[in-house]
Design goal:
This protein is mostly helical. The chain contains 5 helices and no strands. The longest helix has 42 residues, at 24-65.
């Protein structure tokens, strides 16, 4: 929609030396031309945004029906494998993790939250009770 004022400004600048007749017929013709150009802009932008809306609806339909995928399966499998390897390296094999009843924080460097770090700092000089 920014093209309308830009086109009007450029048009006025290019025709600044032209003598514009000041009568009712000239103003009527100018108004009709302006309305016609504005109507064309509205139609073009309406068609453009309606086409975007319809493309979005088609994409949503294809995703819902399973025709189109929203992710790359190979990359997802690779990242899941990496995550499982990192988790296994940090916490042990899955068979050893399943039967645990509580969460064990193995050492000071593994603490992630600010509150737990404060608790470890408070008991750093003393014997660990937890």
């Amino acid at each position: 929609m920014c093209l309308i004022p830009t086109a009007a400004t450029v048009g006025i600048y290019l025709t600044r030396e032209t003598i514009i007749p000041v009568n009712r017929a000239a103003f009527k013709q100018l108004l009709q031309n302006t309305n016609y150009i504005f109507l064309r802009y509205i139609i073009v932008f309406s068609v453009f945004f309606i086409s975007l809306y319809l493309m979005n609806k088609v994409k949503q339909y294809r995703i819902r029906k399973g025709i189109a995928k929203t992710f790359d399966e190979q990359r997802l499998q690779k990242r899941l494998a990496w995550a499982e390897e990192m988790y296994t390296a940090k916490y042990g094999a899955a068979s050893m993790r399943k039967q645990r009843q509580n969460i064990i924080i193995p050492d000071f460097a593994d603490v992630g939250t600010y509150e737990l770090r404060q608790r470890f700092d408070a008991f750093e000089g003393e014997k660990d009770d937890f």
